[in-house]
UniProtKB/TrEMBL annotation, chains A, B:
Taxon lineage: unclassified sequences, metagenomes, ecological metagenomes
GO molecular function: L-fuconate dehydratase activity; magnesium ion binding
Top-level enzyme category: lyase
GO biological process: carbohydrate catabolic process
Name of the protein this chain belongs to: L-fuconate dehydratase
Ranges for domain Mandelate racemase/muconate lactonizing enzyme C-terminal: 199-295
Annotated transmembrane regions: none
Cofactor: Mg(2+)
Keyword Metal-binding annotated: yes
Catalytic activity: L-fuconate = 2-dehydro-3-deoxy-L-fuconate + H2O
EC number: 4.2.1.68
C-alpha cells in the first residue's frame, strides 16, 4: 500500500529566446518553460511520478502556483484507489467548483491540471513497470472508456460508441503492433522552419533533414505574405516536390486574410495550413477549410478542451487534429479527444516541440495507433530538435520515425542537473545571466 | 502631467459560503472574492484608479499573481497617452506573447487583464470628473470604435459598421437620456432564488421583492428536476403570472438533458433558461435554442471573449447576451461585444452579483442604452443584494431600477475598512476564523 505524501512544483525555464529557437509570427522570443511536478509516495518502493505543463516564459509562475494551489487534493490518495478509478484525480481537480470559476477547463487552471493529472499517470505506469503507451493499450475497452469524462460531449460520442471504436481498432491490433515496434511512428520536422532563422540556416537545416530521411517539413508563415511565399519557395527548392510541406501561421490572420493568403501560398502545394486564425474560432476555421480545399486545415495546440474539439469536428472545421498534451487537462481529456477524432474519422497529428512535448506525445500517438485510430497510416507526429538532452528518457528518432519508449512511465522526468541549472530564477543559468 | 507609479494588488475574500448566498447547482459554497487593483499616479492630484476581477474563492490567488506579473507593463505610462490611445493598455496586456500562451484571452490571465484594464478606465474617468457611463457616452463615434480590437471579429463586424450602429443609436439619444436619468435602468432580482435557501426563506424574499416593485425574478435550477419544478411552482405562487420568471441551470446539463428538462419547466412559463450547458458549447446552445422556443436562451457569465460571443451570435445560439465585466478582458472587450450584439440585434442583459459586478455593469448598461443598443427597452440588468456595503459608491436601487451613478470613475473602489477586514488570509475576519 502506497499513498501520495508530497507534491513538489518547480518553475523551470530555458533561455531559448537567445537563439530564436521556436520563433514564429505570434511568438517572437519564447523562453521555453515548464511548471514541473514531482509526486512522492510512501510504501516500500517510494515511487515518484513526474508531470509538467509547457509555457513560453512569463506566465509559467501562474501555472506553478496553480499546481501548488490544487496539490492538497492529491495528498493522501492511495495508489490502489487511483488504479481502480482512473478518473479519480481528473474528477477531483476539474470538479472543484471554486477553481472551476477561473476556467472553466481552460487557461492557467487547465494547464496546471495537465501537469498534475499526467504526474499521476506517470506514477501508475511506473507502478506497473510499463511505458504509458503500453499501460493504456493493455487496458480493457471498458477501462479506457472509464478514463473519459463524457460531460458536454455525449451529444457527439456515447460510451457505447467509444467501446465500438476501440473494438474495431483492436480487430487489426496485432498487425499494427508489429509494424510500430519495428518502424516506429512517422514524424515530421519543424526544426528548419522557424521565422527567426536566416535563409542560409534554413537551407542548411533542410538539406540535413533530407539527408536524414525526413519526408515532411513544416515552415512558419504569418509575416509579410511576399516574404512568406519567398521562404516557402526556398524550402521547396531544397526539399523538392515529392516531400510534404506544411505551413503554420500561428493565429496571425483573420478569416478572409487566411483565405486570400492561402490562395497565394497554394503555389507551394502545402498539405495543410496550421492555426490560420484564433483557436477559439470554430466557425471561422470551417469557412477557411471550405474555401481552401484541397489544402487542409490543422489546429489544436491552443484548443483548450474536449468541448471545443467536439465542435470543431461537428462543424467540419479541421482536416488534421493537433492534440496538445498540456493544453488539454492531461491524459484523461486526451483520450476523450482521440475517441472523438476517431468517431469523425479525422487523423490526430499531435503538437510537439516546446519542453518535453515530444516525450509526451509519442505515447499518445502510439496508443492512438494501436487502440483508437480508424486509419493509423495517417498518424504523423511533430518533431522538434530542442531540449531533449534535459530528459531522463529522451525521445529516439531513427529515419524520421519516433522509436517507441520502453522505460516505465510517461517519459516526463527531467534530469536533476538540468533542474538545478534551469530552475527560475534561482538556478545556475539564471543567476549567471542576471 | 501624471504617470502610473505604483500598482498594488490585494486578495480580498468574503466568507459568503457561511450563509449559502450565491449557492447554485454548480457552485454549492462560494466565497465571493476579488483580485483588487489600485493604481497610483504622481502629479498634483495624485489620482488613484481601482479595478478588480471577481472569483468565488480558491483560485483568487492566481488572479492576484497574474495582476502582479503583468503590472510592470503599466508602470510609467502617462495619463495623457492613455487618454489619447484608449486601447494602449489592452493592446499591451493582450499582446504580450508569453502571457498570451497561458490564455490566449481566457481563464486566469484574461480575468486579471480585466482588473488592470478596468483600473485604467477608472483612472481616466476620474481624471475627467465623470462616471464611466458618461465618459464613454461623451466620446466621439471614432473614439468608441478605437476602443475595440477588431482582430478575429472583423468577419462579423467592421469598424465602419460599428460607426453606423453608433450613429443610428445616437439619433434618438436625447430622448433616451431623459428617461434614463429619471427612471433608471430596469433590473431583475436573483436574490430570492438561490439553491441553498429553504422554502420559507424563498417565499418571504419573493413577497418582499414583489412589495418593493420587482417585476423580474430569477431562480436557480439544475438540481433534481422534480425538485426544480416544485421550487419554480412555489415561486410562481408568490410572484403570480404577470411578472417575469427566469431560470438558471449554471451549466449542469448536457444538450438533450437541457431540451428534456425545459419541456417540463415550460409549465412555469420562463422568459429564458440561463447557462443550460457548457459556456464553450456554441453549437449546443444553438440546438437548445431551436428546440425550446419560445423560451429564450441566455448565457455569457463564463463566455470568455469576443470571439466566442461572435460565434454565439453567428450561430443563433442566444436570445439574451449576458456580458460579464470581469470574464471579458475589461471595458475594451465589453464595448466590442456590445457592438456585436447590436449588429445581430440581440439584447445585452449583463451578468451581475458577486463582488461589485452590479457596481460595474450599471455603467455598461447605461452606455449601451444611450449609445449602442438597437432597442434600449429590452435592456435588463441583473441585481443581487450582496456586499454593496463594502463599496465607496454602492449601487442605488429604486423601484426595481438602477439609478445612475454620478461619482467619477467606475464605482470600483472598496472601502478601506473592508479591505483591512477581508484581505485574505491576513485580514481581521480571516484571522478570527482560523
Amino acid at each position: 500500500m502506497a499513498r501520495i505524501i508530497d507534491v513538489e512544483v518547480r518553475d523551470v525555464r530555458f533561455p531559448t529566446s537567445l537563439a530564436l529557437d521556436g520563433s514564429d509570427a505570434m511568438n517572437p522570443d519564447p523562453d521555453y518553460s515548464a511548471a514541473y511536478v514531482t509526486l512522492r509516495t510512501d510504501g516500500p518502493e517510494a515511487l515518484t511520478g513526474n508531470g509538467f505543463t509547457f509555457t513560453i516564459g512569463r506566465g509559467n509562475e501562474l501555472c506553478v502556483l496553480a499546481c501548488k494551489s490544487m496539490a492538497p487534493m492529491l495528498i493522501g490518495l492511495e495508489l490502489d484507489d487511483l488504479r481502480a478509478d482512473l478518473s479519480l484525480v481528473w474528477n477531483a481537480l476539474v470538479g472543484d467548483s471554486q477553481f472551476r470559476w477561473v476556467g472553466p477547463e481552460k487557461g492557467v487552471i487547465h494547464l496546471a491540471t495537465a501537469a498534475l493529472v499526467n504526474a499521476v499517470w506517470d506514477l501508475l505506469a511506473k507502478a506497473e513497470g510499463k511505458p504509458i503507451w503500453r499501460f493504456l493499450s493493455d487496458l480493457t475497452a471498458a477501462e479506457i472508456v472509464s478514463i473519459v469524462d463524457f460531460r458536454y460531449i455525449s451529444d457527439a460520442l456515447t460510451p457505447s460508441e467509444a467501446m465500438d471504436l476501440i473494438s474495431e481498432a483492436r480487430s487489426t491490433n496485432t498487425l499494427r503492433e508489429r509494424d510500430l515496434v519495428k518502424d516506429g511512428l512517422l514524424a515530421y520536422t519543424t526544426s528548419a522552419g522557424w521565422l527567426g532563422y536566416e535563409d542560409d540556416k534554413v537551407r542548411r537545416l533542410c538539406r540535413e533533414a533530407v539527408d536524414d530521411g525526413w519526408g515532411h517539413f513544416k515552415v512558419k508563415v504569418g509575416g509579410d505574405i511576399v516574404e512568406d511565399l519567398r521562404r516557402c519557395r526556398l524550402v521547396r527548392e531544397e526539399i523538392g516536390w515529392d516531400r510534404a510541406l506544411m505551413l503554420d501561421a500561428n493565429q496571425k490572420w483573420g478569416i478572409s486574410e487566411s483565405i486570400e493568403n492561402m490562395r497565394q501560398l497554394a503555389e507551394v502545394s502545402p498539405l495543410w495550413i496550421e492555426e490560420p486564425t484564433s483557436p477559439d474560432d470554430i466557425l471561422g476555421h470551417a469557412r477557411i477549410l471550405k474555401a481552401i480545399a484541397p489544402v487542409g486545415v490543422a489546429t489544436g495546440e491552443m484548443v483548450h478542451n474536449r468541448i471545443m474539439f467536439k465542435q470543431m469536428l461537428q462543424a467540419n472545421a479541421l482536416t488534421y487534429l493537433q492534440i496538445d498534451s498540456c493544453r488539454l487537462g492531461g491524459l484523461n481529456e486526451v483520450v476523450a479527444v482521440l475517441l472523438l477524432a476517431a468517431k469523425f474519422d479525422v487523423p490526430v497529428v499531435p503538437h510537439a516541440g516546446g519542453v518535453g512535448l515530444c516525450e509526451y506525445v509519442q505515447h499518445i500517438a502510439a496508443f492512438d495507433y494501436l487502440t483508437i485510430a480508424r486509419d493509423p497510416s495517417k498518424i504523423l507526429v511533430e518533431y522538434v530538435d530542442h531540449l531533449h538532452e534535459h530528459f531522463v528518457d529522451p525521445v529516439r528518432i531513427e529515419n524520421a520515425h519516433y522509436m517507441l519508449p520502453t522505460a516505465p512511465g510517461y517519459s516526463a522526468s527531467i534530469r536533476d542537473e538540468s533542474l538545478e541549472d534551469f530552475t527560475f530564477p534561482t538556478g545556475r543559468i539564471w543567476m549567471s545571466r542576471s
